[in-house]
Amino acid sequence: MDASPAARRVAFAVIVCAFAALGTYLLVPRFHHARTPEGKPPAASPRLTPVPAQSAVRAAGPPSIYQWLPFTQAGLTAAAGTAVRFCDAYGTYSYTEDGAAYVAPLQAVASAQLVGRIEAAYEAPGLAATRHGEKQVSVGTATITSIRAFGPGSLTFVVLVVDQITSAGGRSQPSTTYAVTVTGSGTTWQVSDVELASAGNS
Description:
Elements: H1 5-27, H2 53-60, H3 73-90, E1 93-94, H4 99-103, H5 112-122, H6 125-134, E2 137-151, E3 154-167, E4 170-172, E5 175-185, E6 188-196
Antiparallel strand pairs: 1-2, 2-3, 3-4, 3-5, 5-6
């Protein structure tokens, strides 16, 4: 016997409700249905959204190497400038100058002890005789190639000095690499030692 229209509507409604209940069970997160031994639903764990590495870098900005060094960028620039000025003057001389005139430009950028040693070496009889005999005039140009060592109050630069020498025998362009140590702090530095780079100086 066929069911009446009213009975069919009731049966359809029951089926719809059953599917709706099944869908809710399958789609809602499981912790909503779980129970603790006391019969209470467990607390939901917070969801953590990972921050992409690139976003984190952009937020923090690029790292500055100076945060790991015992001097600032301005301090390093000042120290390097002192080393270059010293080496420019160290490689610049004329056979017409005596020792005092030669070291005069060095006094502003080097320690008094170092200036005294350089003046004595410049006036050594053999070197002085060669300069005068060949009428040597030199212009030095310095270029820092690397940093050899550093500490809280000192930096040692490796500096290439090219001398443009004019003499009675013509022109030449010898080059020498020095290890130049500057001491100081902040933006105030002076050269305290200079050696051939091959001889050390750290």
